[in-house]
Specification:
191 residues; alpha/beta; 4 helices; elongated
Length: 191
């Protein structure tokens, strides 16, 4: 049912713009023509595309200030590791990227935002994908890694351009290289 809304929104936009341009032409003493319909359909198509690409977005909860402050201290609980996932880049920044650790979705990130998850030491798999209309235009990705007790692991996620499907990349980066960037980002609460 959710996929019906982008189509309805696009059709309503097309009809409304074509109507306004037709009325505008009539008020100006001209005969409403094909141009108003063409512009309305084009605008409706743009609205349809954007709404379809954003249809996989879920409500995100911003982390409270105390949780964010603790996360930016980069302290790790004894016997655990800390996983930071950060989303950067302009391409698709308004679309929520679903992240799963070992098959369990724990957060959806828009760009530029980050999340932190305390994890057990050992091997793990981080998966990134999109829902909604963007799912068909992107290729999901998985990245395996091993966490040691006391490790601070930072994974940087970006969405690029692709001929057939837009690639999602997951890159493990040094905390020292991204510490200032993380401090300037909003933090999303994990579930």
């Amino acid at each position: 049912m959710k996929s019906f809304w982008p189509l309805l929104l696009g059709a309503l936009t097309a009809g409304f713009i074509a109507f306004l341009l037709g009325v505008s032409a009539a008020v100006g003493g001209e005969k409403p023509g094909f141009l108003g319909i063409a512009v309305g359909v084009a605008m409706g198509a743009v609205v349809l595309l954007v709404a379809n690409n954003l249809s996989g977005n879920r409500a995100m909860t911003q982390a409270d200030e105390e949780t964010r402050r603790r996360a930016l201290a980069f302290e790790v609980p004894p016997g655990q590791a800390a996983l930071y996932v950060m989303r950067t880049g302009f391409v698709g920044k308004a679309a929520g990227m679903d992240l799963a650790l070992d098959g369990r979705t724990f957060v959806q990130l828009k760009s530029p935002r980050f999340a932190r998850l305390d994890i057990a030491p050992g091997p793990h798999t981080l998966a990134a994908s999109f829902g909604g209309g963007l799912a068909a235009q992107t290729k999901p990705i998985e990245r395996e890694f091993v966490a040691g007790a006391g490790d601070v692991i930072v994974m940087k996620l970006t969405l690029g351009f692709g001929a057939a499907k837009a690639p999602i990349t997951i890159e493990r980066v040094s905390l020292e290289n991204v510490r200032p960037a993380l401090a300037g980002m909003d933090m999303v609460a994990t579930s």
